Amino acid sequence: MNSEASRQVCEQCHAEITELDPAPVCPTCGGLLEIMHAERSDAKELPLRFATRRHELRGPNASGVWRYRELVMPSATDDVIVSHPEGNTPLLARDAVAKWADVERLLMKHEGHNPTGSFKDRGMTVAMTQARRVGARAVACASTGNTSASLAAYAAQAELRALVFVPVGQVALGKLTQTLAYGARTLLVRGNFDDCLALARDASASLNIQLLNSINPFRLEGQKSIVFELLDQLDWDPPDWIALPAGNLGNTSAFGKALREAKALGLIAHVPRLAAIQAAGAAPFARSFADHFAQRIRVEPETLATAIRIGAPASWDRAVRAILETNGVVTSVTDDQILEAKAVIDAAGVGCEPASAASVAGVARLRREGVIGSSERVVAVLTGHLLKDPGALVRYHQESDPAPGRANRPVEIEPRVSEVERVLAGASS
Ligand code: F0G
């Protein structure tokens, strides 16, 4: 084991296991595990080292995850890393979105630019690398779509067998087809995401398969790089807020850990506040926040934002810690608010999947309520790609009756220039 080895520490009973122990949860009490890295004496040199790596075009350092390897998986050597590469996603400013949310200094970190179309690739590159390091024979996950596509792609690259559990009839077609195309064995489970995760946990424990859902602590290490990369893009001058959609709470937990570590290393002078946004029909965490996290709540989830249609979030305790440590807030937005925010983001030429738009819809709500100030700097994370759910887009733009205010109805015409002229002149039929 080299001197950069990290440890896995139980979040509940604080028992420790080695970095290369393949146990999915604490062998003593069943609690979730957290990765603890050895202390660093070179923190001051890191920003320059990260900046230098930006010029590398090949190999792991060309990845927006592995560029931050000292903070993610310091002991990984280039030969074991399974990287597409991933990350390097843009930080976008668009006046139309800022105006709609009434936050002048709003930026969007677009994670839909990852290779399989969502932020999941950042966690997957690290978890798949770890699966290979521990000699896994197969990998598995439960998913609402994005994780399954990501796992399937990275497993194909690592040449590991892949098994995915998805809720039948509730996964966007694009994601299901991606998963099939990359070659994962796909199980359509008669139940919702929470049922899929429970089954995946049981099956992987009894069949000796490595579970790569975000309860896997290595996934969170990779997802921390969203925060590192956006801070790096801002020259380590942190925004006031970071807003993100929240479902199973893996990302909320990863963001809290990233900020805690960045502050402890002196990379940032202050910690931005997290704003975790849930869909109103799947908002157990927002309800609990309103009650000062007095209880862990479970709901029967219902929302058109399938990615965050989750009623029993797995990373609950560590997400509570993330919100408390960052003086964060948790709120919810209705499906109509999600669709309106999405239409604004899409029409600005950016585009994202429905769940991702929850972050901007949440920023608008928090601004209306005066929680976010009009001159504060906000980064909203768009977690997935516009093309994830074309079905939702067809319903919104083509089928909804009456048409929503921002619907862009296509117009059917005869193949004649006069028809084109008529449409250009503003007639719609
Ligand atoms: N946004 C997108 C696009 C997602 O796919 C997910 C989760 C989330 C937000 C929520 O993140 O669970 O870390 O709070 N999707 C999972 C999946 C559940 O299976 O792809 P979280």
Structural write-up:
This protein is an alpha/beta fold. Helix content is 39%, strand content 14%. The chain contains 15 helices and 13 strands. The protein has helices at 46-53, 69-72, 95-101, 120-133, 146-158, 173-182, 193-207, 217-233, 250-264, 284-290, 316-325, 335-347, 354-368, 390-399, 417-424, and strands at residues 7-10, 16-18, 33-36, 91-92, 105-110, 138-142, 161-167, 185-189, 210-211, 241-245, 273-279, 329-333, 377-382. The strands form three sheets. Strands 4-5-13-10-11-12 form a six-stranded mixed sheet, sandwiched between helices. Strand 6 (138-142), helix 5 and strand 7 (161-167) form a beta-alpha-beta unit. It is globular. The relative contact order is 0.13. The model has no long low-confidence stretch (mean pLDDT 96).
| Total beta strand runs | 13
Strand percentage lies at 5-15%
Report the biggest beta sheet as strand number plus sense, adding barrel if it closes.
Answer: 6 strands, mixed
What is the rounded distance between the termini?
Answer: 71 Å
**Contiguous uncertain segments of 5+ residues:** none
Oligomeric state: single chain
Query: Residue-averaged pLDDT, rounded?
Result: 96
Q: What is the approximate shape?
A: globular
Order of helix and strand elements from N to C terminus: EEEHHEHEHEHEHEHEHEHEHHEHHEHH
Bound molecules: ligand F0G
| Count of separate DSSP helical elements | 15
> What class would the helix/strand composition place it in?
alpha/beta
> Largest sheet, order of strands side by side?
4-5-13-10-11-12
Nearest-angstrom radius of gyration? 21 Å
Q: Estimate percent helicity.
A: 25-40%
